[in-house]
Amino acid sequence: MNTRTIFLVVLTTAAVLFLGYGFSFAGSGATAANSKIGTVSIRDVFRDCKANASYREKALAEQNTRSAEIDLLQKEIAAQEAGLQTLKPSSVDYMKQYEALINKQAQLEAKKQFLSQQRSFEDGQWTELLYKEVLRITKELAKAKGLTAVLGVDEPVFPMASTDELMMALQTHKVFYSDGCVNLTAEVVSELDKVQLKLKP
After folding, report:
1. Which of 43, 57, 112, 191 could form a disulfide with 154 if both were Cys (CB 3.0 to 4.6 A apart)?
2. In this structure, what CATH number is given to the domain that contains residue 36?
3. pTM for this one?
């Protein structure tokens, strides 16, 4: 091995060691105190903020009222079915009672479908409103702290209930590691709590 080859090997080795040292130093120095990247757990924000807890409490009360309406219709149907058994089949009274029963059953199914769609629509409206507020607050906090980026971090919960849920996690879970970043979750919750009375779905 000639002198030129030895020199190149030494130089290459030194460069690799220098770069490796520099990378290690940079990695060890990345702490929340000097990080320019923040994180927010949307799942924790929705779980912990007072506004969402208030909405869920109200939604549960409304759901109980709507369930009572369904129960009443079901009792009326049961009463009509019992009354139908006392009538002579194919008689005028029987056919009138049967028609009333069919209409009541159709009313029950339509009511169920409507209430389900209504609940879904209301939940969607609220989720969109709250999410927009989280984005607004996050941007303000990030600017105030001089952050250059904020990542959404929500770890998947294993085991998954279904393959569809697993595929959704694969498509949406993008941040695998975020140690040393500025966690804004608690501050976002705090700011949300300050404006909860203004949030109306």
Report:
1. 43
2. 3.30.910.20
3. 0.74
